[in-house]
Write the C-alpha cells for this entry.
Amino acid sequence: MKRLIPYALLIFALMLVACEPQSIVQRGGGTDSDWLVTVSRVPAGETARVTRIIDGDTIDVEMNGQTYRVRYIGMDTPERNERCFREATDANRVLVEGQTIRMERDVSETDRFGRLLRYIYVGDVFVNATLVRQGYAEVRRYHPDVREHDDFMRWRREAAANNRNCHATGVFR
C-alpha cells in the first residue's frame, strides 16, 4: 500500500495540471508529485496520443493516423533485467499513459533503431526532466541532442543527493 501512495499523489497532481496548468509549482517535498518539473511555456512541436508504454523512457504514440515509437531524449531508465525497471516504467505510465502529449525535437529526428527522439510534455509538465528529478532516470548525453543536458544534470544531482527512488537501489552508478 505504501508503494501506491506516491503514484496516487502523482495522479492527483497531474489532474491539477490538466485543470490549471500554472497552479503546479516545483516544490521539494517528499512525494513524486512534489518533484514535477514544469515549464512556463510549452515549446512548439508535434501533438500525439500515447497508445502504449514500453518502459521508463520509451512509448508508442498515434500521430496523424500512424503509430510511432518514441525514445525520450537525454535520459535512460533501467532495462527489463535491472532493478527498478518496473518502478521507472510505472512512473512513466502515471505521467503519460493515454495522454495527449507535445513532443519536441532537439537536433536528431530518430535514433539508430528508427525511434523518434523527443522531449515530452503533458500540459506544462516536462516528462523527461520529471523522471530524472524523481530519481527514475539517469542522465545520458547523446550528441548532438544535448540542449537540456545541464538542467537534467541539476535534477539528477538533486535526486541522487536525496536518494530518490531508483537511486536508492544502486542501479545508477
User: Anything to note?
Assistant: The chain is about 30% helix and 25% strand. Residues 12-29 have pLDDT under 50 and may be disordered.
